[in-house]
Design goal:
The protein is mainly beta. It folds into three domains: 274 residues; 147 residues, Sandwich (Jelly Rolls); 128 residues, Sandwich (Jelly Rolls), CATH 2.60.120.260. The chain is built from three helices and 62 strands. The chain has a twelve-stranded parallel β-barrel. The protein has a twelve-stranded parallel beta sheet with strand order 17-20-23-26-30-34-37-41-47-49-51-53.
Amino acid sequence: MANRTAPLSVLIGAAVLAATVIATVSPAQAAGISPFDIPGRGATVPFAEIEAEKAAHNGTSTGTSRLYGTLSSEASGREAITLDAAGEYVEFTLTKPANAVTFRYSIPDGRNATLDLRTGSTLIKTVPVTSKYAWYYGYYPFTNNPGDGRPHHFYDEARALFGTTYQAGTKIRLQVSSTAQSPSFTIDLADFENVPGPVGKPSGAIDVVADYGADPSGATDSTARFQAAVNAGASSGRVVYVPQGNFTLWSHVIVDRVTLAGAGPWYSVLGGRHPTQRNLAAGLYGKYVNEGGPSQNVTVRDLAIIGDIQERVDEHQVNAFGGAMSNSVIDNVWMQHTKVGAWMDGPMDRFTIRNSRILDQTADGVNFHIGVTNSAVTNTFVRNTGDDGLAMWAENVPNVGNSFTRNTVVAPILANNIVSYGGRDITISDNVVSETVTNGGGLHVGNRYPGVTGPTAVAGTWTLARNTLIRAGNSDYNWNFGVGALWFWPDQGAITGATINVTDTDILDSSYAAIQWIGNQTTGLNLTNVNIVGAGTFALQAQAQASARFTNVRASGIAQNPTVYNCAGSGLAITDGGGNSGWQTANTYCGPWPAPQWGNTPTTPPTTTPPTTTPPPTSGNLAAGRPVTATSQTQSYTPANVTDGNTGTYWESANNAFPQSITVDLGQSRQVSRVVVKLPPAAAWATRTQTLSVLGSTDGSSFTTVKAGAGYTFNPASGNTATASFTAANARFLRLTFTGNTGWPAGQLSEFEVYTS
């Protein structure tokens, strides 16, 4: 919320029609599955997606960790490719003709750079990339300050038209021409499509440029001109046409009883933000109920709203769509770089978003908030939202009869792919969700947040049917345990009196548990034809009372044995409807949380015995393999890289924020007298001098200087190694504090070695 390629068989029968079943897919196959491998489910998209790690490249994999705060954890498929030298590339082979690409990437914070788009030796065009819409820090609601630590939301997306159509089999490269502006470029994927030509002006339409003087160059603010054109369209019943152009809007345009149509989302683009009043930005809003709304009979189609929102401020109405609209449709609209794609405040009725794309939001993709009824999001692709992908939040007026159907929701950076917080008679069906990052699951049902109790709580009949959840659920950094791919949290009151039917659902390669209950009691739950293929911890995770009927709920590839975590005791009451396998409630576990299993490798059953730790070395490099902390980090360049024995990996602090420190815990106090520090030996790491001091501590809190600050030169010709020797000191913790670097505005280190002599 803004507040807070495996083959699939199809089972067709009298009771289940066209239900995709994954029962024959192994956990290993499930781990590699894409959200576009699921026939008949999810959004029908105009592009063909190719993951960077599955394309030809000469870069370096990010690895496949799902640990929050790593580049891989936010990547589609949990892996991406980093390019960090001129000439490095990812090369995609087109599977269909294409004249355009959208690619997902990450560069370090504070950077603006370019990437070359090439076919063979031919430069198609140079594409700008930036970090300004990525990189958030700290805890919710997050900041743009690197000093707050906990960096996340690393990725952004850029799009480009080629200017010509390339046929299937053509090789298209994203290639680094220079690292002068950015030391690295991480490529997650590319979406290739054949964009049709622009849609012409409808007969009799009002033209915002020809008739009202809107500026298609974007050089001046066109808000008033758009508003005048929309008002004229509403009063005359004529369509308002937005021709090709990039139009700057410094504030919302209010739409009511009007059709606003563009030339297509690649051609007609609305954007911009007020230069001084940062709570005003481009957007199309219905009238709020307390201002004469809801608006009625609005259609917006065939255009893009690509904003300039670079921070999260929940009080700011800087969304692509907002207010209240009844009997209205948003169709084929591209929403990007706004706070929320569509935050709709009811009461309002019969509102639909369809055939659209919602990308790179600072908060939710969509939120139906307060008394939204009989409304839908369908056939829409959502990726890289800063909060829930698709959400309904009843709060103090019931949401009733809404549906999220045939959508694909990938990589919400916080919270859930799809959720409804309260509501009556809700349908969530035929969706594909993947890559939940933290503090949420793939599908969530909850009585949560202020007001979601009594008449706004979960009620009536809920239908969760034919959904596929891939690599969903993840860790909650507040709770410090995993959240299920499908989970139920009646936080502000038990879920009772409702019927929740979960049918024909596939839960694949879950990061932690497949299904979870927490909070108060959940009743009225029926699971039928549910396949759990791979789970990083448990098949079921019961932390609250729950009663349910399970029929044909089959599990395989569960990391933990016992397969059920049950701290609700007899409060977990599952009625066996037959056909169940791979889990049981007769043999369960309740105790300390097992370590996450990012793959699905079976592990020893958890016990109450604390895990053993690696003893500290007694000679040689005393820091080898020891735990490390730092004041900050950039992207995936984590502190742990400095004690892993691999000079090819490194730590990098936040940029332009000296001083920065990195500290190693030797495990026990030792007499130490020498520190050896290294950078990667590759010639790409040009000679640089870093100014640093060495401090020691026996307790980790009180540090004294054992070597005063001095400049240390790292030269690739001599292995990029420097040594600081000092009078022997007794210390368990050794800290390096960096105050300068002539080669980069950050502390950088690949190895931190500590010796007795």
